[in-house]
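Figure caption, in words: inputs first, then the predicted bound structure.
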Amino acid sequence: MPEHANRPLAKMLVPKNHPRYQSLKIRERLVEGVASGITSQVGLIAHGRGEAFDYLIGERTTTSAMEGARAAAAMLLAAKNPVLSVNGNVAALVPNETIELGRILDAAIEINLFYRTDERVRAIADHLRAHGASNLLGEHPDPDAALPLAHPRSLVCRDGIHAADVVLVPLEDGDRCQTLVDMGKSVIAIDLNPLSRTAQSATITIVDNVVRAIPNMIELVQQIRGFSEDRLAEIILRYDNHSALQSAIAEIVLRK
Ligand code: ATP
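Bound structure (adenosine-5'-triphosphate present):
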């Protein structure tokens, strides 16, 4: 990597009343993530696609996204073995929130990367530990099981994603999402693009930015954690991913 890629961002003061303040702050966190070896450069491009959809959505949590987050909270609470999958973008954008969600659900956090190197896995693990994580899976020599995929996202932990009944996959690629569903797992995706293969193949897709979706899920888990199994099952059963995605598209087009 050229030397300049590792230089810290020139500290530019973005005024808080700038109309794109939040969006620019998110970009800065990802650029810093690249500089510290957490986020891949390609992750910036993936973010750009998400950001374009977020612009169209109006950078807000829509009604359908909140319904998806509620169904996801119910599904994670009802799970026997929930796992939260984390990549470089998620680690850079929502480290505290992901750790908090894992803590209140008693769910493992597993590092799973498309552009996987031992160095990057270690950088992400150190970053998450610096934010208070203690139950991390996926570091060398951990991945001891494989999904039927021809890329490094296939590398998983036997006691983690491989054994999970519910997997939360923020910013996923479609292949792995489909593979996890084919293995009989319930998959919760967070994806700003309602047309992506991930969004279309997940069990529940929350069409929202991870920076809003994960804090919403924390709140929802806290709200419904006392519900009976039947009540949680009812919330899950009432949710239909196809109609949720249709609503998400309508909310984008009509700005409902
Ligand atoms: P698929 O294989 O599912 O069609 P893709 O190849 O289009 O996905 P990737 O490049 O693997 O997508 O990942 C980027 C995905 O993550 C995009 O669908 C994008 O909308 C989404 N995304 C990027 N940043 C965010 C974010 N901050 N919050 C939620 N979703 C995001």
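Residues 34 and 204 are 29 Å apart (CA to CA).
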